[in-house]
Amino acid sequence: MGFWIIYEAITTISLALTCLLVVIIMQIHPKIKNIPSINFAKVLFFSYFLFKIIDISSILFKNEFLSRFSGVLLYIFLFVLVISVNYFTKESFLSIGFCVICSMGLLVIYVSTQSDVVQLITRLGYQRVEWRGLFNILCTLCNSLAIFYLFYWGLKTYINTPYALKKEALLFFTGIIFDTFITIFFYGLFILNPIFMNFINISLIIGSIIILYSIIREPKLLYILPFEVYRISIRNHEGYPLFNHNWYDSNISEKIFTGFLNSIEIMSEEIMNIGGILDINLNKGILILYHSENITTGLITSKASKLLRECVLTFSNGFEKKFKRLLKKNCIDMNEYKSAYELIEKYFPRIPYRILRDEKRKYTLSSKYIILPKQIENKIKNMFTSEVQYDSVINDLARSPISLSSVFFDLYNEIRDNMELDDEPVKVIRKISSPADNNLLKQDTLMVITSKQKLSLEEKDVQRVIIVAQEIIKKHKILKMKNLYNKSIKITDIPRKQLLRIIQFLADQKVIVDGSNYTRRTIMENEYRRKIYNVILENNGANFSLIKKEVFINKPSTGGQLIWHLGMLIKFGIIKKIKIGKSSLFLPIEMDIDLGKLYFFMKDNLNKKIIELFTYQEMIKKSDLYKLITESRSKVNYRIKNLIENNIIRFKNKEKKDICLLPQFEREIQKENTRN
Which of 553, 466, 541, 535 is nearest to 506 (CA)? Predict the structure, then answer.
């Protein structure tokens, strides 16, 4: 026997024992032994262990039956691999590839029983049994398909892994590379020289160990592909929200969440009658609803899943048990249920967070943490009477051009000088911008339990990350999660996993909020700005008083709040402002200024009567106007003077006796009369 066959036997048996060891570790390791998906991995590695043991035995004992059986075991390994990959990627067994592999099985078994499918050959002076003919082609095809499926799984997992788990995903993908591309490379050399079979086995050993280590280090890698979990929300049976939690950037699934709210209202009675768990199809996902004794739990995910249904059930029962006293008292204060975050870690431990997934997405800090120049900060504080309005303005300011503040202040001064705004007492708004102000947070401390320790806004490491975020925003105006993570790693000694938990905590508690720069499209996502624009559009222009009356019907508001939104619309070219005497008129950006003036004056009944007279007569003497309109001469004279000064009507001749309408307005007035 040549030395090379001894080396091959040693490396092959080592590979087989490595696979068996992987199965044992997966069976006993406390971090992964209870994961349903890990059972597929155990069967996969065990089937490959059997294949390698039988394969090397057929070579050492020159046994044709064992050689045939090893080919069948290779097919079984491929069959298990396809099932496993299908489950890992979509939590289902069926696929086109699965059907093809099933049909291929009968052919492999049939061919393995035929004569002359194995032969005794001599390699480097040693006789061994190898596959030949059609059987060899089928076994080679099994090997090739196994490599393809394994690489497909690894690549798809790496691509879809959120940024927070990218390092673990890269390690996992490295193991896949050893088991696929590096193995293929050595197989090409094996064709030239059989001694390279040892390198193939070594490569597979390294790849298997790396895959096992990466899964133990981060079991969530097994749940990257089957589904994406967006949000869970708990409401009592009266519809009051008690608890919300996001795994995904909430801005991405706002439409889904709206569907969730509607579904709760429509389906609640049906759920009570049916009982159990109900799946509701939404436009872009699935809503899993569970109705228990005191609460209704809704989980929004990309697809239905047996695992997620079980998680919703156990989470809901845990929530009911933990907050039984509060639920019996019908407590609707969400602050009382903040500690439910520990239940998320307990019942959804394997669901990956995707809040850091989009590296290009821009963020900012909430208003409490945005540092503004003192002059601007004090002015805005004095203009807004509620903390909610103040927060909204500061967050808008962080997402807008720097010059927006000056546009707002100019508009505010102009309108306040000429119109009576609400003079409500100014409420002092507290702003926290440095660790020195931490004591202000004591009453509103937000806490979450992650892994072994609690996080709170008062904690030292959390404050250090906030300070890093403030420095980035101060320098670059916008914040990216990746930049925050990388800079925090450099200048703090916070462990990497703890840092990721802190960033997730800050995002989940709305300390880090959407900071993407506003555009003409996104500026209109605000409900009040849409209403303001619609009022201006429907009325062919509107003044401040009309807008305020129409937009804030039965709602408390301040002039400053409305002026802020008007300033935003002006800055982004949605509307424009013109002055008519002492009045400010707001027009759609596309409307001609002269036309806007015409519609403004026609809102006054007396002006409208005067203007409409010119649709019947091209020219009217001024003295005749007094006769045609049954109003006092002074009122008519005042209106005529205003219309002439604003170029709506004009004197036809130098004697200033005959008056006519400017020609560009005649057709528009005829259209207006037709519409009416």
Answer: 466
* Long-range CB contacts for residues 525-533, cutoff 8 Å, separation at least 24: 526/565, 526/568, 528/561, 528/562, 528/565, 529/565, 529/568, 529/569, 529/574, 532/562, 532/565, 532/566, 532/569, 533/569, 533/574, 533/575, 533/588
In 3D space, the residue among 199, 208, 211, 228 whose CA is nearest the CA of residue 90 turns out to be 228
Contact 300, 284 (CB under 8 A): no
CA–CA distance, 594 with 655 (Å, rounded to integer) = 26
DSSP assignment of 521-588: TGGGGSHHHHHHHHHHHHTTSEEHHHHHHHHTTTS---HHHHHHHHHHHHHTTSEEEEEETTEEEEEE
DSSP strand pairing (277-282 vs 285-291)? antiparallel
Domain extent listing, the chain: 3-223, 229-347, 594-676
The mean pLDDT value for 383-402 works out to 69
Q: Given the DSSP bridges, would you call strands 363-365 and 295-301 parallel, antiparallel or unpaired?
A: unpaired
Which residues are CB-neighbours of 501 under 8 A, at least 6 positions away? 450, 451, 455
- The domain defined by 594-676 folds into Arc Repressor Mutant, subunit A (1.10.10)
The values of phi and psi at residue 469, to 5°, are -60, -40
H/E stretch holding 131 reads: strand 126-131
Residue with tokens 């001599």: 122
- Helix, strand or coil, per DSSP, at residue 659: strand
Dihedral over Cα of 469, 470, 472, 478: its sign: positive
* Segment among 168-177, 319-328, 540-549, 624-633 with least mean pLDDT: 624-633
Mean pLDDT across the chain: 80
In terms of CATH architecture, what is 229-347? 3-Layer(aba) Sandwich (3.40)
- 651-676: per-residue pLDDT in tens? 877 676 788 888 777 777 766 666 65
Distance from C-alpha of 561 to C-alpha of 12, rounded to nearest angstrom: 75
3-state SS of the chain: helix, strand, coil percent to 5?
60, 15, 25
Q: Could you give the CA distance from residue 661 to residue 613 in angstroms, rounded to a whole number?
A: 9
Q: Which two tokens stand for residue 561?
A: 């709040």
Rounded distance between C-alpha atoms, residue 6 and residue 128, angstroms: 13
- At 364, is the secondary structure helix, strand, or coil? strand
The torsion region of residue 125 among left (phi > 0), alpha (psi -120 to 50) and beta comes to: left
Backbone angles phi, psi at 543, to 5 degrees: -90, 175
CA distance 478 to 467: 14
Element (H, E) at 243: strand 241-246
Phi/psi-derived region of residue 248, left when phi > 0, alpha when psi is between -120 and 50, beta in every other case: beta
- Nearest-angstrom CA–CA distance, 422 and 152: 64
Query: Nearest CA to 351 among 245, 196, 272?
Result: 245
Compute the residue count for the chain.
Answer: 676
Of 606, 592, 605, which is closest to residue 665 (Cα–Cα)? 592
- Using a 10 angstrom Cβ sphere, with 0-12 exposed, 13-18 middle and 19 or more buried, the burial of residue 470 is middle
More confident position, 416 or 175: 175
3-state secondary structure at position 426: coil
Beta bridge partners of 44: none
Which of 17-26, 68-77, 556-565 bottoms out in mean pLDDT, i.e. has the lowest?
556-565
How far apart, in Å, are the Cα atoms of 442 and each of 334, 458, 466, 508? Answer: 17, 8, 17, 19
Are 320 and 314 within 8 A, CB to CB? no
Rounded to an integer, what distance in angstroms lies between the CA atom of residue 327 and that of residue 236?
Answer: 8
Question: Cα–Cα distance between 131 and 68 in angstroms, integer?
Answer: 8
Q: Is the dihedral of CA 26, 32, 34, 39 positive or negative?
A: negative
pLDDT per position as a tens digit, 558-588:
677 788 888 888 888 889 998 887 788 999 9
Whole-angstrom distance, CA of residue 613 vs CA of residue 619 = 9
Query: Token match 């005829």: residue?
Result: 670
